[in-house]
Amino acid sequence: MALKYTTWKVTDEKELKLRLTSHQAATVEEKIGMNLLKIFMPEAGEEFTLIGMNLLKIFMPEAGEEFTLPPLKVMLLLVHGALQQYEHGYSFEDVYDLYDEYVDNGGDQTTFMTEVLMPLFEVSGFTPRGSKDKKTSKKKMTVVE
After folding, report:
1. Coil, strand, or helix at residue 7?
2. Which of 46, 68, 93, 119 could lock 6 by a disulfide, CB 3.0 to 4.6 Å apart?
């Protein structure tokens, strides 16, 4: 059975369980004004004012394109919603403080996206779950033009 949550290691002493329930996902969607899958899979030619990029475009921009990440506020809204299932009681202001702690302990926004938000989307059922044995998994990304 797959894990029902992922963890965010804020500091060496503080790990928080994250999972977006359908209720919390709908709440976040309402706040950002779009379906959460649009963060990772926009339609061809579509431009977004909040997120702005296909995930491949975020990490592999073409020559002349800007390297951009989703706005930090959107990322933190996702985490705030995801804290409610197992770590309820955190306010959105608390999430800002948690993120500052994370950065003070060596974290950064790109790593936050790849190591916190992407696994969050997997355990919350928005994207397919990865291999059960990630150490032996040999995934290869191919860009199709």
Report:
1. strand
2. 119
